[in-house]
Design a protein that fits this description.
Layout (H helix, E strand, L loop, with lengths): L2 H29 L4 H39 L2 H28 L1 H8 L7 H14 L2 H17 L4 H20 L7 H26 L13 H31 L6 H36 L3 H28 L1 H9 L6 H15 L2 H15 L5 H25 L1 H26 L6 H32 L3 H25 L5 H8 L3
Helix pairs in contact: 1-7, 1-10, 2-3, 2-5, 2-6, 2-8, 2-9, 2-10, 3-6, 4-5, 5-8, 6-8, 7-8, 9-15, 9-16, 10-11, 10-13, 10-14, 11-13, 11-14, 11-17, 12-13, 13-16, 14-16, 15-16, 17-18
Length: 514
């Protein structure tokens, strides 16, 4: 299956998940609003996800997928299954011990991760309780990452992309049907997070079984391949840790800012994550096993071609998305979130945060393309070094910009440090001869920018005529936002055809069965 097809499949299911995620966030904004309860749930939800990205999706996937793909390519299916079972057992027992430890010392974790909450005993206690409910999620979602790595290596991306849908359905169900059962709706949501993790494990376990990879649970054992996995994993864990530490520092600093600051960052990031999740994550997920196989077979030209193709696909979608988030952030946040407990003040502050995040949107996606170029070659140390530099840039800018722009300054710092990271990643690959920018790619990138500017002007003009609809009732708001979206998509696509950025033959190739 081609990279375009694979990315389209993964992206399509991710789009469904993101749409459900928006419904979830709209319900959260209406039920919880932007305040103390939401701040506590955001902390409780982010902490297991922080460790998931650190050990599971970050370090473990980066080391597991290349070894598994190479084993499958060279040693056959049985040896690959045996390695997967060994890794599964070691990961499961390690995480069981880790979760048990965190459940005991949750207050200490909150004290470190959200120290600003310590001034309010009730807020601190609520954060501790919610975190104890959500933290088992790290165990289940880490096992999901391993099972997803198996399926991705087999070229089966649909099941992996569909798994997050389960999480959103669980949280939506909790908000709609069970928000009044416990002390607060946040308690119900926190429990639903861990339940969703269990269901995702069952779903992907069955998907692997259907694919002919029956993973048996066996006693953990440090075999040579598992030892190799751990050796490669630790630099990747440190690298992922630095990236996640960026996000963690934002959360710690935001806990010192006025109430609702963390909520503004959360809701803005949720919208910003739509193109990152649909395009960036899809490209990174598809690219890693593809590059691993190409490198194993010695086809370096295919590696460079795949990376350039991924960059074209990524920026085709993310450049106009970034422009839209800068031009009409207020309209998007107002229609999606402003109701009940989510006030107009929250809309204004969240909109400013979204516009700041948007400047780094293409960089977030490009990082997903360049990092597999290192991981596929077993190099997890270089991205770590670059991530450390980006961390210092982020911390320095955080401390400066928060003095003038509060939570918006944190988003600005994140965007700038993302570009610093991407610049170092790309230069590193170019200097090693592992990547080169081809002239057709440069031409297309220039056209993407021009077409996106045209789109921005059209949307900016159209918002003047839709302002009364956006400020109206629910149906009028939906109509107004739809007009803006259609205007943006239509003007961008027309501009790409006029400038011959996209050709009819390429669209036919994308949708053809062959």
């Amino acid at each position: 299956m081609s990279m375009i097809k694979s990315t389209a499949i993964f992206g399509s299911f991710t789009m469904i998940s993101r749409i459900l995620g928006f419904i979830r966030d709209i319900l959260m904004a209406a039920v919880l609003g932007a305040g103390t309860i939401t701040d506590c749930f955001v902390v409780a939800f982010k902490l297991p996800n922080f460790f998931r990205r650190l050990f599971a999706e970050g370090a473990f996937s980066a080391s597991f997928v290349p070894i598994f793909s190479t084993t499958l390519e060279k040693d056959g299916k049985e040896e690959a299954i045996n390695f997967a079972e060994e890794a599964f057992s070691c990961l499961a027992i390690t995480l069981l011990l880790f979760v048990a430890l965190i459940e005991i010392f949750t207050p200490a974790l909150i004290f470190v991760m959200a120290n600003g909450f310590t001034d309010d005993d009730a807020k601190f206690a609520l954060a501790v309780t919610l975190t104890r409910f959500t933290f088992p999620f790290i165990l289940f979602i880490s096992l999901v990452s391993l099972l997803a790595g198996i399926l991705n290596s087999l070229g089966r991306f649909a099941e992996t992309a569909a798994a997050p849908i389960i999480l959103n359905l669980c949280l939506i169900s909790a908000l709609v049907f069970a928000s009044e059962i416990l002390e607060t709706p946040a308690h119900t949501l926190a429990i639903a997070v861990s339940i969703a993790g269990i269901l995702q494990v069952i779903f992907l376990f069955y998907a692997c079984y259907k694919a002919g990879f029956r993973i048996r649970i066996k006693p953990p054992k440090l075999t040579p391949k598992v030892k190799k996995l751990l050796i490669i994993m630790w630099p990747a864990a440190l690298g992922a840790g630095v990236v996640q530490l960026n996000l963690l520092l934002d959360m710690i600093i935001a806990s010192y800012l006025p109430d609702a600051s963390m909520s503004y960052l959360y809701y803005a990031d949720r919208l910003n994550q739509l193109p990152i999740g649909v395009i960036g994550v899809a490209l990174g997920t598809v690219l890693l096993p593809l590059l691993s196989r190409s490198i194993a077979s010695g086809n370096e030209e295919q590696v460079i071609k795949s990376q350039n193709q991924a960059i074209e696909m990524g920026l085709f979608f993310t450049v106009p998305a970034a422009v839209a988030f800068v031009i009409v952030p207020g309209e998007l946040i107002h229609v999606l979130f402003e109701r009940n407990n989510f006030t107009s003040v929250a809309t204004t502050q969240t909109s400013l945060t979204l516009a700041a995040y948007a400047f780094g949107l293409p960089a977030y996606v490009l990082a997903k393309v360049f990092v597999p170029g290192y991981f596929a070659r077993g190099d997890t140390k270089t991205p770590l070094k670059f991530a450390i530099v980006a961390l210092f840039v982020n911390v320095g800018l955080n401390l400066i910009l928060m003095q003038y722009f509060a939570h918006v300054g944190l988003a600005m710092a994140t965007a700038i440090s993302a570009w610093v990271n991407v610049l170092m990643l790309s230069i590193g690959l170019i200097m090693r001869g592992h990547y080169r920018i081809e002239w057709p790619l440069s031409i297309r990138l220039g056209k993407y920018i021009i077409c996106s500017i045209v789109m921005g002007v059209c949307v900016w003009q159209m918002q003047k005529y839709t302002r009364s609809l956006i400020d109206g009732n629910g149906l009028e708001q939906l109509i107004g936002l739809t007009i803006l979206v259609v205007t943006g998509l239509g003007s961008y696509l027309i501009a790409t055809f006029i400038t011959k950025t996209v050709k009819k033959e390429e669209l036919k190739a994308l949708f053809s069965k062959r």
